[in-house]
């Protein structure tokens, strides 16, 4: 199991809360979060309770302020660990239309620019057959993040995106 520590202030200062399991509502432990230390595991933190709202995927390391995990504010209201139940293989298929229509590309490695590599301006659906992946709405692993585990995503809202723009993606390889 992983371990994560949330701090109310930047640079690991102020009130803190240690967590080692999924938590659907963190508001009773702290009011705001401005720094995080991930000691082990890969974590998804959410801006709203019950694993809702914008999500941020954090690997082991230190995040001295919320900009280091690309957050727009100090709201962290729920968290969960990412479990490696898929082995050490990665494969996904991207589709340019909803319901797996249009052009399809199969991927098994990280991609810093979906447009430059595959000439896809938008990804409306995808199927993850192996591994755990992170989609970013901008190239070079920037912008909003979306966790995709094994399964079928018939339209972009199924992975939580408000638009079909996928700028880059990468595999989660450390658990």
UniProtKB/TrEMBL annotation:
Beta/gamma crystallin 'Greek key' domain mapped to chain residues: 2-40, 41-83, 131-173
Ranges that cross the membrane: none
InterPro entries tied to this protein: Beta/Gamma-Crystallin, Beta/gamma_crystallin, G_crystallin-like
A molecular function (GO) term: structural constituent of eye lens
Keywords: Eye lens protein, Repeat
Statement: the UniProt record of this protein carries the keyword Repeat: yes
Similarity comment: Belongs to the beta/gamma-crystallin family.
Name by which UniProt lists this protein: Gamma-crystallin M2
Origin organism lineage: Eukaryota, Metazoa, Chordata, Craniata, Vertebrata
